[in-house]
Each structure stands twice: as C-alpha cells, then as structure tokens.
Amino acid sequence: MKRNTFALIIEAGKEGEFRKTLGRTWEEITSFLDGASADNFSLWQMGTLVFGYCETPDDVCAPETAAACRRIADTFTGCVTWLSRPGEGMRLMYHDFGIVRKNKDLIRHRVFATRLKGDFQEEYKSRHDGLIQARHGETDPGPDSNFSIWNTGRYIFGYDEIDVTMEREQTEEEHEKTVRWETGMLQIMDWITDDVDWLTGERHPHVIKLASHSLNCIQAAKDL
Fold it and tell me: What is the 3-state secondary structure (H, E, C) of 102-138?
C-alpha cells in the first residue's frame, strides 16, 4: 500500500471559488480515484491550508494516469497555490502505522499542520526518528494507527486514525511528557492548527473535513 499526500493554499478571497470548483470536479475526482483503486481518500481544511490523503496499491499518478491527474489539479488554477501537487510526493518525516483498521466506523481522525521557523527539516526528522528508535520495532496496538507526518517546504502535516474504543485519559506522567515534548517542539515550529492551544493559550483554526471517498462507496452502491 502506498500513502499519497498533497497540500495547497487557498488564495485570499478565493475560498468560495475553491469550494465551487471542488463541487464541479468531484465526479471527475472520484472517477479518477476509483480508476486508480484509491481508498481512504480525505480532504482537510485548516484556515487557508488544505491537506489531502489517500491510499493506493501503486503510485496515484502513474505514467498512464499522470495527464488526468495534472488536468484535475489544473482545474483549480487561479484559486490555489500548490505546496505539493498530487503525485509529487511529500517527504515522510515520521510514521507509527501500528495496526491499521480497515473498518473506519469507529475511527476519529486527527489531522494537524505546523510551520517550521526556519530550515529545521533535518532537526524535526531527527527528533522523530528518535521516537521510532525508542519503539524498538514493536507494533503500536493503538489507539493510534496509520499515523504519519509529512513535509513540504517549511510546512508539516500530520495524519492519524484513532480507534475511539481504545481512547483513555492521559496519566499525570503521560501529560507531563506531552508538555515537555510540545514545549521543545515550539523551539523549531509554530502551530497552524489548534492542537496545543491548551498549552500556548493562542487561538488557531480547527481542522475541517471537506470531503472523503473510499472503495467501500463503490461496493455499497453495488449492494443496493
């Protein structure tokens, strides 16, 4: 399975145009995704930033589908600036895939965005590589799964699927560890989303799920 991501910025005053374009091209987008056997597609908005995620057996924009991929992306010309176009591939900075749940009925998503304060890409990755090493190759049983963090330019995007049946309150020790980690990360990045507003006292945009599509939608239609 290949995980595919892309990101864009909606131009100032163009949010309405962006959403209308999304609506006009949605049938073409979903047809392209179905043709690529793309599953678990989702589109997330945080202020003027938009982040997209999907899973495919092969590259989502393989040579035989690259032209169609570009044509769909070009439909949004004039209302967005691409940070990373579909098929370009962001850099994977961290992963904790754990046990990926195929059934998403009881999944809560956590999607987030930050911006590095400078050229701290390698420092960011080094810190997260340490987390991977600390797991000693063990598979995380949850509640987090399919967790990955991606980089394009100075932007960082995170995608996480959380099994709500396994969630629990943090212990005091776990909370203190979270505070130490997040405080240290604030040395090299600023939050775009509201994930640590509880710590900083600032106000950032909440993440909105704009759209989603999966191969299950096809099967459900066939079963009707």
Answer: CCCCCEEEEEEEEEECCCCHHHHHHHHHHHHHHCCCC
Question: Would you state the CATH architecture of domain 2-90+207-223?
Answer: 2-Layer Sandwich (3.30)
Identity (one letter) of the amino acid at 24?
A: R
Q: In sequence order, what are the residues at sequence separation of 6 or more whose Cβ sits closer than 8 angstroms to the Cβ of residue 106? A: 163, 164, 165
174 token code pair: 């776990």
pLDDT digit string, tens, across residues 89-120 = 899 999 999 999 989 999 999 999 999 999 99
Give the helix ranges, DSSP H, for the chain. 15-35, 66-74, 121-134, 172-185, 197-200, 215-223
Q: How far is CA 177 from the centre of its chain?
A: 24
R_g over Cα of the chain: 18
Please report, for the chain, the start and end positions of each structural domain, with discontinuous segments joined by +: 2-90+207-223, 91-200
pLDDT per residue over 140-154, tens digit each? 999 999 999 999 999
Tell me the angle at which helices 15-35 and 215-223 cross, rounded to the nearest 10 degrees. 70
The alpha carbon of residue 79 and the mean position of all alpha carbons in its chain are separated, in whole angstroms, by 21
